[in-house]
Design goal:
single chain; 282 residues; Rossmann fold; Helicase, Ruva Protein, domain 3; seven-stranded mixed β-sheet; 38% helix; binds S-adenosylmethionine
Length: 282
């Protein structure tokens, strides 16, 4: 049997299995094992953990996760063309790799983990990266079934996740991500590291779930944030009308000027607004 260390180079695997990248599936592959091992290591200690990987493709990051000591990797891949290449890694991994064919948006990952310590580590397909992230951030119960997430996004999306209040990048994604986790950009990856190279730089973002996020109903928060940023250039007294209730008493209760704009409202203030909205609706 071939050991993980002795698997053929990824370029050869891609050629042998005819894995020409498909744009519609967001396929930009990482073929440099030094880089994929760096990403795997940046996800924290892997031993003692199950790792969920979305979109293993030909398996560059998958191999790295296994080589860096994950107890088990559960990899969810939508493209059936990748399955034979992944089966070769599974054979070398001697029971530590489980491949699930399907759309990651439809998979109940918490059920797969079954309460074992878990991390999510992935080079995400850009077309479903944001919905996947939002789903993980909205997980209930909280703290979530995963101990950390280490995810690659287009740099522009990464900036929207970590943005502080006051700038254009600050919005729904920043509020949701920073309410429940501490996100930070670990490092960038240049387009040339990928095959084929995408147009933009990518960033690896690490999310540590907060044990005690500010108390706040996630649906109310979502409503307030959607209303506020839905018309981000308007003053809150006008944009929050979309909530279907007079925003003036809400803003007064929290001590936010009615002339303020969404961009300058902190995560804590959004949580307070959501709480006040809940109280008002009884
Ligand atoms: N992990 C590989 C790497 O780093 O080289 C491939 C990453 S590539 C950016 C994204 C992968 O996600 C592709 O293999 C693609 O087929 C897969 N994919 C796209 N949409 C998906 C979905 N909805 N569910 C699961 N996998 C998906």
């Amino acid at each position: 049997m071939i050991a993980l260390d002795d698997l053929p180079p990824l370029r050869e695997v891609i050629a042998r299995h005819g894995l020409a990248a498909r744009k519609a599936l967001g396929q930009n592959f990482l073929l440099d094992l030094n880089l994929t091992r760096r990403i795997a290591r940046s996800g924290g200690p892997l031993s003692g953990h199950v790792v969920i990987e979305i979109g293993p493709g030909p398996g560059g990051l998958t191999r790295a996760l296994l080589l860096e000591g994950a107890d088990e990797v559960i990899a969810i891949e939508r493209d059936p063309r990748c399955l034979p290449a992944l089966a070769e890694i599974a054979a070398a991994a001697e029971g530590r790799l489980t491949v699930i064919e399907g759309d990651a948006l439809d998979v109940d990952m918490a059920a797969l983990i079954a309460s074992r310590p878990a991390r999510i580590i992935a080079n995400l397909p850009y077309n479903v990266a944001t919905p996947l992230l939002v789903g993980w951030l909205q997980t209930d119960p909280w703290p979530p079934w995963y101990r950390s997430m280490t995810l690659m996004f287009q740099r522009e999306v990464a900036e929207r996740i970590v943005a502080p209040p006051g700038g254009k990048a600050y919005g729904r994604l920043a509020v949701l991500a920073q309410w429940r986790t501490e996100p930070r950009i670990l490092f960038d990856i240049a387009p040339r590291a990928f095959t084929p190279p995408p147009k933009v730089t990518s960033s690896v973002v690490q999310f540590e779930p907060r044990h005690n996020p500010l108390p706040c109903d996630k649906r109310a928060l979502e409503r307030v944030v959607a209303a506020a940023f839905g018309q981000r250039r308007k003053m809150l007294r006008s944009s929050l009308q979309a909530l279907g209730t007079d925003p003036a008493p809400l803003l007064e209760e929290i001590g936010i000027a009615p002339t303020e704009r969404a961009e300058r409202v902190s995560v804590a203030q959004f949580c307070a607004l959501a709480q006040a909205l809940e109280r008002m609706r009884g």
